[in-house]
Amino acid sequence: MDIKEIQNLIKFVAKSGASEVKLEMDDIKITIKTGSDQESTAVHYAPIQAQAPQLVAPPVAEAKAPAEAPAPAAESSKYITIKSPIIGTFYRKPSPDKPLFVEVGQTIAEGDVLCIIEAMKLFNEIESEVSGKIVKILVDDSSPVEFDQPLFLVDPS
């Protein structure tokens, strides 16, 4: 069963009015729960080898994310946006008892460490690829971030 078939199944269940549907086949288990405002779907592939279950989010969740993006885009026309190169947890300092890497108004140079993103228990230092002044920090400390999510606005002048 591919993603397209699963998405069609989710749409069908949502239109049917059923509150919960469970489907089990040889190597796949699908549970679709629908509520008044929310759909949730869990897809578990169970091959012979031991693997972590894979989850497929319903298409409804993707439509909500772009609503936030236009606000920073309008004010960032003259600024350079530094984006997250990976998915993980964003940290503004190397440890709780250490000072912040950067603050708003601080001048940075190419190669300066701006933050740390923890992914799978590995702490990845994110370095600046531009020189300039930090105008805005777009993510709160200890927040989850997505790939290519804007983290900082930098004034290159």
Automatic annotation (TrEMBL):
SUPFAM superfamilies reported in the protein's UniProt record: Single hybrid motif
The scientific name of the source species is Mariniflexile aquimaris
Q: Which PROSITE patterns match?
A: BIOTIN, BIOTINYL_LIPOYL
> Which keywords does the record carry?
Biotin, Fatty acid biosynthesis, Fatty acid metabolism, Ligase, Lipid biosynthesis, Lipid metabolism
Q: Which residues form a coiled coil?
A: none
Per UniProt, residues of the Lipoyl-binding domain are 79-155
Gene3D superfamilies listed in its UniProt record? 2.40.50.100
Q: In which pathway does it act?
A: Lipid metabolism; fatty acid biosynthesis
Q: What is this protein called?
A: Biotin carboxyl carrier protein of acetyl-CoA carboxylase
Q: Name one Pfam family in it.
A: Biotin_lipoyl
Q: Tell me if Amino-acid biosynthesis is a UniProt keyword of this record.
A: no
One Gene Ontology molecular-function label: acetyl-CoA carboxylase activity
Q: What is the lineage of its organism?
A: Bacteria, Pseudomonadati, Bacteroidota, Flavobacteriia, Flavobacteriales
